[in-house]
Specification:
By secondary structure, the chain is mainly α. The chain has 9 helices and no strands. Helix 1 crosses helix 4.
Length: 230
């Protein structure tokens, strides 16, 4: 296994990125790699991928450049691992939201969509990093495959839940695929608005937008489920 492979994100808990005192030299491999990946997210958000440098990552992490090279032999490897880290973090968030919502399908649907606005994930820096990777996906097959896989898995789960809600309440003229895509588009639009507005996150506003759409599409299930996901 290459150094840097298989790093698990610290889900829902973002480590401090610019520390007054860097971690001790004896920090474990996983802790050090997590620190470097978090610093990479900062640099991508602030400088973009075109100006990304390992020396800047080292400076943000408070370590020598050699430490970055020790854990990630190339810039490409570090960026690949960072995208994998963000993907795993995102998946863990929406999967955890579904599980915590219980068995009611409407509750699970609302929880899954609102997980996009979890305070640990819905930040200007993380959103900027995601947009940077998606912007490069067309030119870099490795990014394109990862991003497409993330979207396909989430869409499949979201569509399945929508299908269950439709069948359970016997809604007519409802297309679960279109509903799932619309919900994804709503989240994408809110993320873009957060990015363009300088990082201000109005989670209550985001929730209202999502709930208003669900009330219109599934009036027999909402707003009853609205109190289930906080």
């Amino acid at each position: 296994m290459k150094q840097g492979a298989g790093i698990k994100p610290a889900v829902l808990r973002a480590a401090p990125l610019r520390q007054k005192r860097p971690p001790e030299r004896t920090a474990s491999k996983e802790v050090r790699q997590h620190q470097l990946i978090e610093a990479t997210i900062v640099e991508i958000a602030e400088r973009g991928l075109s100006s990304f440098k390992l020396s800047d990552v080292a400076k943000t992490a408070g370590v020598a450049v050699g430490m970055v090279n020790f854990h990630f032999t190339t810039k490409a490897q570090l960026l690949d691992q960072t995208l994998d880290y963000l993907s795993d973090e995102y998946k863990a968030c929406w999967r955890g939201a579904i599980e915590a919502a219980g068995e009611n399908l409407a509750d699970r649907l609302l929880a899954m969509v609102l997980s996009d606005f979890d305070p640990a994930l819905c930040t200007r820096r993380r959103i900027a990093a995601w947009h940077a990777f998606y912007g490069e996906a067309r030119a870099r097959p490795a990014y394109r495959e990862r991003c497409a896989s993330n979207e396909e898995e989430r869409h499949a789960v979201l569509t399945k839940i929508c299908t269950g809600v439709i069948r359970q309440a016997r809604y007519k003229d409802r297309n679960p695929d279109i509903i799932a895509r619309t919900l994804a588009a709503i989240s994408d639009g809110i993320w873009l608005d957060i990015l363009l507005s300088g990082g201000r996150v109005d989670r209550d506003g985001a929730r209202l937008i999502v709930e208003d759409y669900l009330k219109a599409i599934f009036p027999r299930d909402f707003p009853r489920a609205g109190a289930a996901a906080s």
